[in-house]
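Running low. Any example?
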Amino acid sequence: MRIVIAGAGDVGTHLAKLLSGENQDITLLDDSQDRLNGLDSNFDLLAMQASPTSIRDLKEAEAHKADLFVAVTPDESRNIVACQLAHSLGAQKTLARVDNYEYLVPKSREFFTSIGVDSLIYPEMLAAKEIVDGMRQSWIRQWWEFAEGKMVMLGIKLRENAEILNVPLYSLGSDLPYHIVAIVRNDETIIPGGSDSIQAGDMVYFMTMQKNIQTVRRIAGKQELPDIRDVIIMGGSRIAVRAAQLMPDGMNVKIIERDRARCNWLTQMLSSKVLVINGDGRDPALLMSEGIDHTEAFIALTDSSETNILACVAAKRFGVTKTIAEVENIDYITMAEKLDVGTVINKKKIAASHIYQMMLDADVSNVKCLTFANADVAEFIVKPGARVTKSCVRDISLPRGSTIGGLIRGHEGVLVSGSTQIQEGDHVVVFCLEGMIKKLEKYFN
């Protein structure tokens, strides 16, 4: 697949590196040679100094042959123009990064499609939604819904009090109200089989239905943790604004921001239910005066990954149950896990998941890169005559390192067993090690 990416910032570079490992034909454009240096020698891609809004440069980058053209520069207007030009030249699909939520409403999307922009992505809004999803339960590290909530994925750190430790998974029984689809242990991601077992300290990913969530909570030993009512956000970024706006009613939200002018802007942007405080969120005295010892959730969203990690570690020492850190340096994500930070938000991974979805030939309605695991999860819609419909699940022979987490049939979520027969039109949730989704397409087409 020929993919042209305009913008060698955080999102563009991460996406280019990710796709270059999958034998895709990748061209990465940027005005700045400094941002491109070393990329073409260290990764299987063409790094080209060029303007994404220059017709001559786009032709030289062969945008007219692109199966997918992605514009993710910091300037949304430039991204839109670049997509229009690439579309006019002959690019098959185009995607633009934007910063205006108004552009994402259905009527606006129809307009953008009409001018040659097939899809829009707003990474800060996606990150805010992931934060709010993570706030649903104080005991869950990651929450992801499929088919409008008919099935859910729960990422949970298991401690010594969990009921399912140190026994082979096959001994738990075959008629469980959940399916364990991935285990992360000491930086290793395991797609488990029946002989694998869970150990204290493992991050475990469960697939289940809404009605069974409390069962998972019990066997995970998380019943004593309180529900979230009071939230402190450190840093008044765009993600913080969107997250505060999306918080459920009944949550009391405070934002601590160092810059006074930014505080004034935040006060104007947000409703009266959000209290904006001018100060340093790293100051223990300030945190104590704002009730950190009676707060259930602390979210660190400054532009420094190190600050966010350390602030969450400090919040844990104050007794905060739920901590969330924005960690944009991917090398620090493992460190954050080892320090037991809690939930980690990374815009690059979130955006890459959504862009990756556009590459697939199969009908895929959801793709997610798991933050702490070297694994992906995808929701495939089964086509007529697809390979997975030819035999029951135990005989499908999916590639090693992949597993079916469950399926949605009609209006109901279903946990699969070896005897389950997948049908045309089913939404099938598949977990796999990173980089395997393209290999799985042929099973569902």
Remarks:
- The radius of gyration is 22 Å.
- The first strand starts at residue 2 and ends at 6.
- The chain has a mean pLDDT of 90.
- Residues 322 and 364 are 32 Å apart (CA to CA).
